[in-house]
Write a structure and sequence with these properties.
The protein has 774 residues and is mainly beta. Among the domains are: 14-168 and 633-720, no CATH class; 183-289 and 557-596, no CATH class; 292-376, no CATH class.
């Protein structure tokens, strides 16, 4: 498949739009464009969606206005079909513009990070202009396809999502996933959860009598001389004689803490000077992935809706997603995209997603915790979460030049059989390597490599054996089945790669998208000489993971789960140096804030921030060209070699595009024209009445009669299918605009623990930006 690799630089833009007649006028025709008005626009380093409608000066001198496309279908999230209303003013014409509709078909690429969709190869397959001859229409189509510059062939993802019929989304449910409830702790006082991946693995620290646990994301220390354990909770310390507790406020820390190496222990050393112990925090310790519901006092219940049709209550004084069906009814807890229920907060808990009460569908979008609708089967939000997860992130890879990462085993290569297959996977390395017959396949950062031995040599491959895609969910290597590769049809030196959400850990089942397979994968533990070696797989539980409607992916609950990104990710073993790096040294500058970034140790990404932020960005751009490079880079050169800059002001502001060949115009205007599938152009007034452009003017059309399609005076009404389609498209345009604004506000705020689909809804914990490991 061919990828359009494009980039951007910045300019200011001026807007211009043909003036259309007022709603009350019936016979006036669209007139020519008024004088352009300029408006300064702030610089930006990323591609953006520009306001609708958009106006252009064609090479012939004609003026063109394109109204927001109305998406009709998006097959496999790769090919988009849409309809759009168009105004065309011939060169030299100053009075009357022709109004018509076009059907647009195009392959698409998506930037999930910027939430933008690009029309890769735009083709107009149908056009209807009531007042023009067929030859004129063909000329307009040709001019349209040539006039719209590549950098303008962008629409916000949220506008497309709002338009797509979610009822037609049929996900490929993942077979073999599990929904057994994890250990769930409950507290009404300040508490934290220390997840340890099995029994503690204690690593020595050179020239120090302290040891630290490598298989937890907490700063957990053992001090053998005093038979004591120490735990850092932000700027305070706790102490225990048994690692499982009880934990109490620590007194004076051993002098060994002051001897910790500065480069690996910055966060810890910064807290050593604190003389006060942590006196008010309960510490729960679990050696298997667990979750924590931490309330601030007694449960505070709030009705989820003002209507009397539901007894569902939201527990508002917790970061967790907790609801109750009446103050004495069953409790419902959502974590990792799975619902669990219990008679009360102490359990016992059982899986509840398939049997959720219908009350959950009544949670309004404006509710502070409406994000849970993405995990309620049968809701539009649940279907949309599945759709977003099916959007591939693509890249072109130079198979001759890209070098594979170094593969280091702890001793001789060890391979374990993958149950239910004839395959085996490497266990004593931090790379995902699958043995198929006598060949070896390594998946690293979304690229497949092949070698004839477990040690290589490795080269990029353009094909992967089908058996690999049969690896079951019970295997820790299951996530590699969501990385595909095929030959590039245009250049045999390159291959086309694609990554789907399952690679990061998001899967589908029970009508929803959820986090993790539910299986517990034992980590690899060995000895590397002076240090123990610990390679953790991805966990389902132990993060308090929640679905973020702003990014279409999962985040994590925050500080009560630890400071470094989830179960077992506090330290990273480097097989090249034979040492451990910790905190910011292990995970980059965001290490101290990684509690909300849900680090995936097998893919090297903080996937929770944005699915699209990896994995291809780690390779650089020389030999791996990201499919969404057009949204990431500043510079863009169109087919004619003209370099332009693009930028964006607030929605609806005047914008101008300028290149060497002149200016194209994007107008601030009312985006209230719609393309009917019947080929006519319609508009809707504030009273809900529709008018059709007919014989050079607007004529109001009546809503379809439920029984008789004809009015009493014999005039045709709007047919029912056209009316329904226009009403859907109008609602979708309004919804898409609101969501685009909401996402813009979210980005400006720096991100946050989003609770609601409708602005606001930010919780106290959650991530504060960040990105993949650097």
């Amino acid at each position: 498949m061919k990828r359009a690799m494009i980039s951007f630089i910045l300019i200011s833009l001026i807007g211009l739009c043909p003036v259309l007649p007022a709603l009350g006028q019936q016979e006036a025709a669209p007139t020519g464009p008024p004088a352009a008005q300029s408006a300064a626009a702030p610089a930006s380093g990323h591609a953006v969606e520009k306001p609708w409608p958009r106006s252009y000066n064609a090479p012939s001198g004609a003026g063109i206005v394109i109204y927001q496309p109305q998406a009709a279908s998006w097959e496999d999230q790769k090919r988009l079909v849409a309809y759009a209303a168009v105004s065309y003013l011939s060169a030299g014409e100053v009075e009357k513009a022709a109004l018509g509709t076009v059907k647009i078909e195009s392959d698409t690429t998506v930037s999930l990070e910027e939430r933008l969709v690009k029309f890769s190869v735009l083709k107009i397959t149908e056009a209807s202009f009531q007042s023009l001859a067929k030859e004129q229409i063909r000329e307009i189509v040709t001019e349209l396809e040539k006039t719209i510059p590549d950098e303008d062939r962008i629409i916000a993802l949220d506008r497309v999502l709002a338009s797509i019929d979610k009822s037609k989304i049929i996900p490929r449910n993942v077979e073999g996933v599990k929904a057994d409830p994890p250990v769930i702790f409950f507290s009404k006082t300040p508490a934290v959860l220390v997840n340890i991946d099995g029994d503690p693995i204690w690593s020595p620290i050179r020239e120090n009598d302290l040891k630290f646990a490598v298989n937890t994301n907490w700063d957990l220390f053992q001090h053998p001389p005093t038979n004591s354990y120490y735990l850092r909770n932000e700027a305070t310390w706790l102490q225990a004689s048994d690692v499982k507790g009880p934990w109490t406020a620590a007194g004076k820390l051993p002098g060994s803490f002051k001897k910790l190496p500065q480069e690996d222990w910055q966060d810890v050393r910064g807290a050593i000077k604190n003389k006060g112990g942590d006196k008010g925090t309960t510490v729960f310790v679990s050696t298997q992935p667990a979750e924590l519901i931490a309330l601030q006092g007694e449960p505070q219940y709030s009705p989820v809706a003002a209507t009397t049709g539901t007894k569902l209550l939201w527990v508002s004084n917790t970061e967790s997603d907790v609801f109750r069906l009446g103050e004495n009814g069953p409790v419902y807890y959502l974590v990792a995209g799975r619902w669990f229920t219990a008679p009360d907060y102490t359990g016992p808990w059982t899986f509840a997603t398939p049997s959720l009460p219908p009350d959950f569908k009544m949670i309004p979008l404006e509710h502070p915790r409406s994000r849970v609708r993405a995990s309620v089967p049968g809701t539009e939000q649940a279907a949309e979460a599945i759709l977003i997860g099916q959007i591939p992130q693509t890249a072109r890879v130079n198979k001759k030049e890209l070098k594979a990462p170094e593969v280091i085993y702890n001793g001789n290569p060890e391979y374990a059989p993958i149950e239910g297959t004839s395959l085996a996977r490497a266990v004593n390395t931090d790379k995902d390597i699958i043995k198929v017959g006598d060949m070896y396949y390594m998946c690293f950062d979304g690229v497949w490599f092949m070698g004839s031995s477990p040690n290589g040599p490795w080269s990029v491959t353009d094909s992967v054996p089908g058996q690999i895609y049969e690896i079951p969910a019970s295997s820790a290597a299951h996530n590699v089945t969501y990385v595909t590769v095929e030959e590039d049809k245009d250049d045999d030196a390159w291959v086309d790669c694609a990554v789907y959400a399952g690679y990061w850990g998001m899967y589908y089942g029970w009508g929803c998208a959820f986090w993790g397979t539910g299986w517990y994968y034992p980590p690899y533990y060995g000895w590397g000489g002076y240090y123990p070696i610990y390679y953790p797989p991805l966990r389902t539980y132990g993060y308090g993971s929640w679905y973020n409607p702003r990014t279409g992916f999962y985040g994590t609950a925050g500080r009560i789960y630890g400071p470094y990104g989830g179960v077992g990710f506090g330290a990273r073993y480097n097989p090249t140096t034979g040492t451990y790096a910790r905190g910011a040294m292990a995970w980059g500058p965001y290490g101290a804030r990684g509690a909300a970034q849900l680090y995936n140790p097998r893919t090297g990404t903080y996937a929770a921030t944005r699915q699209g932020s990896g994995p291809y960005g780690s390779w650089g751009s020389t030999y791996v060209q990201r499919g969404d490079d057009w949204a990431q880079t500043r510079r863009f050169t169109n087919r004619e070699g003209t370099t332009t800059r693009v930028t964006r002001t607030d929605e609806g502001a005047m914008i101008r595009r300028k290149g060497e060949g002149g200016s194209g115009f994007i107008g601030k205007g009312e985006d209230n024209l719609y393309a009917g599938r019947d080929g006519n152009v319609y508009r809707r007034d504030e009273s809900g009445n529709w008018s059709k452009w007919d014989n050079g003017g607007w004529n109001q059309v009546e809503k379809p009669d439920r029984v008789n399609p004809l009015t009493r005076d014999g005039k045709n009404k709007m047919d029912r299918s056209t009316y329904s389609q226009l009403e859907r498209d109008r609602a979708a345009r309004k919804e898409g605009s609101q969501r685009t604004r909401d996402y813009g506000s979210y980005r400006k705020s720096g991100g946050g623990n989003v609770g609601s689909y409708r602005g606001g809804g930010y919780s106290r914990g959650g991530f504060r930006g960040g990105g993949r490991r650097r």
